Amino acid sequence: MKNKAKSKDIYVSDISFDVVEEDLRKLFSVCGTVRAVHMLTDQRSDQFNGRAFVRMASDAEAKDAVNMLDGTRLINRCIRVSAARDKPTVTPVVDVAGKDPRRRRAPKGRKKSP
What we know:
Helix content is 17%, strand content 26%. It is of the alpha+beta class. The protein has a domain at 9-83: RRM (RNA recognition motif) domain (Alpha-Beta Plaits), CATH 3.30.70.330. Strand 4 (73-74) and strand 5 (77-78) form a beta hairpin. The termini are far apart.
């Protein structure tokens, strides 16, 4: 877990759409204290998309949860549980002149005369 910044965080996928936050809290509380549950939603429809992040109180509890709960059946689906990975850092792309290359250019064609 050396490359993981927050090894207390767990990524859960393949969750049934019928699951609510309380169901995840109950399941993961078997392995220790659950600090937070964040259920991911679709940006457009704002509906749950079957994935979540769970934060445990300690690294050891998070490891136990990954080992014990991966493949567990929750409601009507087997969930996948793994340690959460760091979000990659994205550096802005800037060309040599210091301008953003993604910036829109003026339309080509005839220029208006004053």
